[in-house]
Hints:
By secondary structure, the protein is of the alpha/beta class. The protein has two domains: 5-61; 66-431, TIM Barrel (Alpha-Beta Barrel). It has helices at residues 10-19, 26-36, 50-59, 146-157, 202-213, 232-241, 256-262, 271-285, 303-313, 379-391; strands at residues 5-6, 60-61, 66-72, 78-84, 90-99, 104-105, 108-109, 114-120, 123-125, 140-143, 164-167, 173-181, 189-193, 224-228, 246-250, 289-293, 319-322, 330-332, 359-362, 396-399, 401-403, 412-416, 427-431. The strands form six sheets. Strands 13-22-23-12-3-4-5-8-11-14-15-16-17 form a 13-stranded mixed β-sheet, with helices on one face. Strand 6 and strand 7 (108-109) form a beta hairpin. The chain crosses the membrane at residues 330-355. Residues 112-406 form the Radical SAM core domain. Keywords: 4Fe-4S, Cytoplasm, Iron, Iron-sulfur, Membrane, Metal-binding, Methyltransferase, S-adenosyl-L-methionine, Transferase, Transmembrane, Transmembrane helix. It comes from Gossypium davidsonii.
Amino acid sequence: MATYRSVFDAxxxxxxxxxxxxNTKFMASIWKYVLQNxxxxxxxxxxxxxxxxxxxxxxxKPFTSTVHSVFHSTDGVTTKLLIKLQxxxxxxxxxxxxxxxxxxxxxxxRLGGPRSTLCIxxxxxxxxxxxxxxxxxxxxxxNLTSGEIVEQLVHASLLTNIRNIVFMWHHFDTISCHVxxxxxDDDGIYVLMGMGEPLNNYTALVEAIRVMTGSPFQLSPKxxxxxxxxxxxxxxxxxxxxPGLNLAVSLHAPVQEIRCQIMPSxxxxxxxxLMTALQTYQKNSQQKIFIEYIMLDGMxxxxxxxxxxxxxxETFQVVSSYFSINADxxxxxxxxxxxxxxxxxxxxxxxxxxxxNKVVNLIPFNPIGSSSQFRTSSDQKVSDxxxxxxxxxxxxxxxxxxxxxxxxxxxxxxxxxxPDKRTRENTSLLTDIEDLRI
Length: 438
């Protein structure tokens, strides 16, 4: 059976057009037509050179992935897309809708309106092995192509207007929800959802984001956030390859010893070297950096760790999306926000750079079944942690609002048992929550 490439695989499409002597200026026209006519055949695209049609029909498809199932939260603010790839694997993309006018800022009503943030998978599986993440225990399956990454945006855009994009990794959750599926015959699907370390799929990630920020998508880099455990060599070249992008770093502990206990990959990326890389990145990019922090009871949520974190973040301008791991779903932060896989998206405009240079978002962790080795930090501990960061270190700190809890709105491993039509309303999910940030 022939394997086709996605028409959104920019490097492959460009190479094939060049080899055939066809001007690559037609790439944007091809993408625009597919976006406007998602059910089209590539031979239907008008005004292309005659030689382009045979090339497109034999080498490419408008989409190499399909939306298998759609999950809607009961409150209507979160939608998960279960996407089947050409190789038979499944990934998940999550749409979070929120209203930036909710709440107050500086005692005054917020400006803005309804926004949608999309959390995108970059890999099937993950190599990082984070102890708090189900995905990390399952190993790495494969990288997504740049076209498969872009197609998640296209699929989501057919449902709503996407304003913000988040590339993230892992998390956990157990929940029931309503499933909408075109296939009633599947009785068991194993899904690695909202997963992957984006910077471990660097080439495809960069290519996909360049497509998203170019014609016809025209997304602003300021609306795209890449979350990473801290792949230092990739961070060192990220600004030159993708200027203007938001970077989120999953710190999760203020000292190397604790970080290694919960994130084995930290051994390869020592905290001291990571912080140096972040300072260099910020100096070169003049971008704020978001810090992700999952609070785990008795592990990284004590007063000592709060002071250590505060002192660590004093050294450079950083916007901290600080949170406790929560297996329950998505969230919106009161600044301008959201996340893939328990997602939190924090956007702080450049005009606020010197006014608000640190924002910490606290998100309590929900244990993942009986096998979880971690416990939830108490409300009092979260409050005390917040007070230290605010009072002693003048770091703006918020507590995340949950979204999509009833549909496992979080990233990572997803096991979906698709029942027959008679029991569809009670579909059971086991999902892994990704440590989102936005």
